[in-house]
Amino acid sequence: MRASPLLSLTVLTALLAGPAASAQTAPPSFEGQVIYQVMPDRFFDGDAANNAGVDRGNLRAWHGGDLPGLTQKLPYITDLGATAVWLTPVYRQQAGNSFDTSAYHGYWPEDFRDVDPHFGTLAQFDAFVKAAQAANVRVVLDQVVNHYGYGATAVTAQRDWFTPQAQCDASQNKDVDCPLSGLPDLNQGNPQVRELLLGNAEFWRARGVSAFRYDAIRHVPQAFLKDLLARDRAAGTWTLGEWYDADTGTVAEWQKAGFDSLFLFSLQKAMKASLMSGQSLTQVRGVLERQDELPRPGEVTLFLDNHDIPRFAQGSLFADEGQMNTRYGLRALMTLKGVPVLYQGIEIAQRGGPDPDNRQDMRFEAQWTPGEKAVHAAARSAIAARKASPALSLGSQTLLPMPAAVQDDLLLLLREQGGQRVLAAWSGARQRRTYSLPLNKLGLSVGGQDLTKSLFADQNAGLSVKGGYLHVSIDGRDAAAFTLK
Ligand SMILES: [Ca+2]
Ligand SMILES: [Ca+2]
């Protein structure tokens, strides 16, 4: 894995100090990374020879995307600026459908140590990892540790691997001991299951992945997860847990228990309500105010949508407004401390309601409308600005106090790193506005500053400081970032 310069130094120091110091080696970090989330079946079809049963007219059927297609589109992902790719599971899946749905999504495993033929072969997985490494892109692999697919062979062949119904009935923790959506629930208390799951992590780690995204951790015993995570940490594998609906308190609890990161669902909800649907920015502020509860705030995973919830742009009734507010959301996301994840298609404001409508095929450049091209350009430049700015990608984050008169429409964040300061401004106002705020009320110390343009390209936004006042001019529904002198 590639480490940040800071981490490299820490690791180097630990190495120089010899084995005794290895226990003090910093845990793996993704701070400064930008993750692009891919659902391989819905991304790009690079090999028509593996398209058995493909029906692109049916969102519940296989669509033909695969690992060769993902490898082929790596330049698209790096051009956008992402530094890591998270793939939803690529395991060999149950062969048949359940609930009229095929296992295209990857969450119905048959064999945890093979690639589904629709996605390709293990050799093609290895080729993808190799290509990613050559492009300096980290690979984040989805890992399922809670269940098998409904129709998996193990369900009948290894009955004692699964939680008995009586245990579910008697359980005080039904989230853990009862089947999730009826899926065959693995009993991690069985030594064979434990060995299977710990071995799965070793199997994929050995293929060169940098991180695991653990599915449905709310449904897995904490004691088992702690063992799993301790091994990942010792091996330098970054871990990202999916606890559906997690807020800052849940993320903090699990960072303490050994996860490097969890998805911050509460921020996603607030950003969708405020930035996409036009509600007060105080909702976002309420989430960001809790940042100090996190042991490692730079590792928390931030997102606007994913494959399990309706698309971000779906929060507006109108496609053009959805595009404009997605541009606002993407720019805002790139000003925050944490690890941003972009689910394929958000960079063109792809629409879609609940599963499976939120899993429509990715469309590429030649198929984009002018409006989609504009969203992509804004995403690309905001990512580039974040990566070019140590303050935006690695800096501390301070929320500035807002006067009551503007708090619904304005959010100001100070990001600081190594003496560099960047001020991020989000405006939810309907129209272009100039906000003039007294520096002493903001708790901000700046000398005079001439008109300064935003770090984001193609944006009509400016900041100046004069006579003890900060002046920020910004379009309605937009976020900008300014270097402070
Ligand atoms: Ca294919
Ligand atoms: Ca379970």
UniProtKB/TrEMBL annotation:
Transmembrane region(s): none
First-level EC class: hydrolase
E.C. no: 3.2.1.1
Keyword Lyase: no
Gene Ontology molecular function: any one: alpha-amylase activity
Keyword terms, alphabetized: Carbohydrate metabolism, Glycosidase, Hydrolase, Signal
Stretch forming the signal peptide: 1-23
Pfam families xrefs: Alpha-amylase (PF00128)
Domain Glycosyl hydrolase family 13 catalytic positions: 37-386
Catalytic reaction(s) noted: Endohydrolysis of (1->4)-alpha-D-glucosidic linkages in polysaccharides containing three or more (1->4)-alpha-linked D-glucose units
Family: Belongs to the glycosyl hydrolase 13 family.
Record's protein name: Alpha-amylase
Species name: Deinococcus ficus
